[in-house]
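Think of the structure tokens as a kind of shorthand, similar to the way a musician reads notation: each symbol stands for something richer, in this case the local conformation of the backbone. In the example below we present two proteins back to back. Begin with the first one, reading the sequence and then the tokens, and try to describe in your own words what changes along the chain.
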Amino acid sequence: MKKERSKKYRIIQALRILSQTIFFILFFYLLLVTHFPGEDYIRQVEIFFHFNPLLALTTLIASRTFFASFAFAAITIVLTFILGRIACGWVCPLGSLFQFFSFIFKKSKLLKPKKIEDKRTVWKYYLLVFILVGTLFSLDLVGIFDPFSLLYRSFAVSLLPAVKLGFSAFISFLYKINISSLGDSLVQFLENLAINSTFLQGFFIGALFTGTVLLNLSRERFWCRYLCPLGAMLGLISRWNLLKLKIDPQKCIECNLCTIHCQTQADPFPIEDWKISECVYCFTCSSICPTSAIGFPLKLTPEEIPQVDLSRRKLIFTSLLGIFAVPFFRLSPSTARASPKLIRPPGAISEEKFLQKCVKCCECMKVCPTNALQPALTEAGPEGIWTPMLVPTIGYCEYYCSLCSQVCPTGAIQELTVEEKLNVKIGLAWVDKNRCIPYDLGTPCIVCEEHCPTSPKAIKLVKTAVKLPDGTIKTPVAPVIDTELCIGCGICENKCPVVDKPAIYVTSVGESRSEKNQLLLDLIKEDSGIY
């Protein structure tokens, strides 16, 4: 009997590892295929996010609107209510990755499991309270800590670009040693993946993710134990689930192996200390029990279960901290005057609503075919860190592309057809005559006009007189911007031959989504008679 039960739980544990592997591969596959597919439509590559109840709740509270795709989150809630935190133990790709590294660290003796008696598991509950209180005042910071957003952002803007650059260096080495056939194959492979390799904060975001991995040297699944707000939310829901721990006192030899090797500090032994809200049903305890004393039978009847031990004073303090954090996160010059560099992707809703919905997942940055979308740092203030903005010096908004609007998991970027997108202004172009080649040197240059995609073109070429230092006068054609036709795509800035600082540049003024960030306000138009 003992041998049979032990084998049963080892099989269940193997199935759990298989499930984690499958879901991680699925997540990674959806990440890799988030690029230009060769047509105007991309499938639901963001579907993982829609099963996340934390994102559903915070987006609903912060924006006061419900995004229909988050209906899938109800499935996660129901499963958690019935079977506990199996989403954390069997599905979550970030939890699977951290468990994998914890396993590596244990095998290499860098991490030595031991019985731990600390109360740091409550940290994630206080973090959850802080986030939820902020959302009541429309401050949505969940994207910084949400496990799906954290993993996707880290891979999209740091890890994959680093791998691509490493592959590129290896390919160059292959060509140098005359192994061109293999080099050609790898070049084609990289081109098919279409990985963007230039990001403003790639190193910083990569360093943060590396830090979260290295935390597993201290405790197994450190993030899951102490910091994951989604895990905290699911832990609160799972208190009434049907899978209950049972220890046979006749078989238990009190070896404490179950508690020592518990991945999330649920403390299976003694049974009165078992924390059902921390258990992710990995079944490590039952599979390693030397006497097969541990089981998880289904019990329909309620039991007396220890509640999460949260201090009332700390809950009040955390709530007040969440309230007082709101104005501090909004201390930004952009509240007084729109930032010229903060060019949002086409389809982005008004800035206030955008910050309430954007979860900083970087899906839009991954799918952008020109690498134009970059994570903001200070341009949108602390509240807008890692939200997308267009940087024309790196890339431009492709005229016949609306992919970024199709992959946004929260509706912060409204889905647009290509035809709708063509009429959306995200900014305006300006000419710096002190740097523009025709205006400053009197030498012909029509690069910006040639690349302007609008029809009719927003950049016109007008003959102008230029006096040179020697007193001679030249009359080249020079660019002039038609502000009515310009959509702010940034291709003119991107292609400008003035290499260090382009002579033509784009700012956010004139964007369709804002009534305030306009070139001329209605009052000025009335006074000046401009209509």
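Once you have a description of the first chain, move to the second and do the same.
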Amino acid sequence: MFRPITEVAHDLGVATENLEPYGRDKAKVRLAALGEAAEARAPGKLILVSAITPTPAGEGKTTTSIGLAQGLSRIGKRSALALRQPSMGPVFGRKGGATGGGASKVEPSNTINLQFTGDFHAITAAHNLLAAAIDNGLHFGSLDLDPRRVSWKRALDMNDRSLRRVVIGLGGPGQGVPRETGFDITAASEVMAILCLADSPADLRARLERILIGFAKGGRPVLAGETGVVGSMAAILSEALMPNLVQTTESTPAFIHGGPFANIAHGCNSVLATRMALAHADFAVTEAGFAFDLGGEKFFDLKCRSAGLNPAAIVLVATVRALKMHGGSALASLQESDPGAVERGLVNLAAHLDAAAHFGKPIVVAVNRFANDTDEETAVVVRYCASRGVACAPADVFGAGGAGAIELAERVVEAASAPETAFQPLYPLDWSPERKIERIAQSMYGAAGVMIAPAAAAQLKKATALGYASLPICMAKTQDSLSDNPKLRGRPTGFTLTVRDVEIAAGAGFLVALTGDIVRMPGLPERPAALGIDVDQDGRVVGLK
């Protein structure tokens, strides 16, 4: 049984009047807690956890983040987590839950993986209210908007490929204006990005107003503010804007809030949750989705740039399993000892170390150990890091929790104790969008060049004409490779990154460059995880991994 959340909040320094409990094991934290903490103490140091390119099963980045925070607590450091909350799409799809594992989990894990405090539902509702207002305006002719040029879709927190393209308004007179549209998964909704980047209720409202929903027949851009429902959207999101407080298996405080994917969105938890962790702890451990080429870059160039954050250190999670995959081992043989494949796979770790170095922060490699890893295989990684002068620590966070991350925690504290360096984004905002895309592709992915498809070029020209050229870039790219081809493992070279389309996320404050076959509504696999989840006779959820 875990501690009452009121006790966790008290130990963290969150006043009772700033806590809104959802039962005994989770709570919302009022934004007033930020101001009170700022008066009481200096903010802590921000630690970003990222990773190398993962196998399809994932490499335990969230588990490592949780274990690291627990390890910091064990060595006497006041720590807190700031993590994304899971989307039910992957929970019922291929990946399963996203609350860590073994002795390094956030609890109540089943509740967090499912409906939690209702934030995703609120984001979905706000998104769809705007969509309903758009079609209502088209129906009554009260909105100056071309039905053929509406860019705002609908949203659902579920993997459902059949909803990617749909036709609405059928059935004859009175049923609305027939037109083609589609659904995005809630994690890819611009409302999700807005909530995660907003730093106050006023900022949330202003960002919602700026959402570009389409164009009038004369070509004029139409913003969400013209629908008249932004106030209602803000009302739906008013509670969802407050970060959620839970705890780990070792009672380390964890702020779980927001959940954009990193392959199709910006991949970071909310700014407000991160600030809550910084305000109340000496070390705030956060993560960015997938590998550094995706989540890590976006963490710096989108989240940190927008919120004025400046991490003290970067942790790159590597696993023997992933390195063997990048070294050429077949997926079926990843459980077998193969130091040679680990050695060959180090090219992928090298690529991510080189990418992270662009941001000028100390780097620590965490070797997340699995039960089948051998000491010889782990030693290959440790020796390589030593040859590059990079701190490295094996960690058994799944099996031993915080006790298995003590060495890692000590390395992180040492790295974060270095003199603070100035925030260093990858590119300045006054560069053209094309130049920004090229910079990301070459510096983060190792591309030889970039090909902008005609549709994308037209969108970039439109974005420039509308005054959006100074926005940063959010790349939508496969998580399975450094390139835009998911089949290319290791460290691909000589490839050309193709940008097939561009979307304007004016409310979130970035341009989305779409590459490869990335879609904003995933599909379920042939055997989805939903087939193994149930409720037992005592009312407990079982089978959720």
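Compare your description with these statements about the second chain. The longest strand covers residues 496-505.
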